[in-house]
Amino acid sequence: MALIVQKFGGSSVADAESIKRVAKRIVDTRRAGHDVVVAVSAMGDTTDELLDLANQVAPVPAPRELDMLLSSGERISMALLAMAIHSMGYEARSFTGSQAGMITTADHGAARIVDVTPVRLRAALDDGAIVIVAGFQGFNRDTRDITTLGRGGSDTTAVALAAALGADVCEIYSDVDGIFTADPRVVPLARKLDRVSAEEMLELAANGAKVLYIRAVEYARRHGVLIHARSTFTSNDGTYVLGEGMTDPRLTEGADMSDAIGMEEPVVTGIATDRSQAKVAVVGVPDVPGSAAAIFTLVAKTGANIDMIVQNAQSAQAGRTDISFTLPKQQAVDVVKALAAEREAIGYESIVHDDQVGKLSVVGAGMRAHSGVSVTLFEALSKHGINIDMISTSEIRISVVVGENDLDEAARAVHAAYGLDGDIEATVYAGTGR
Ligand code: ASP
Ligand code: MG
Question: d(Cα 278, Cα 291) in Å, to the nearest integer?
Answer without folding.
Answer: 22
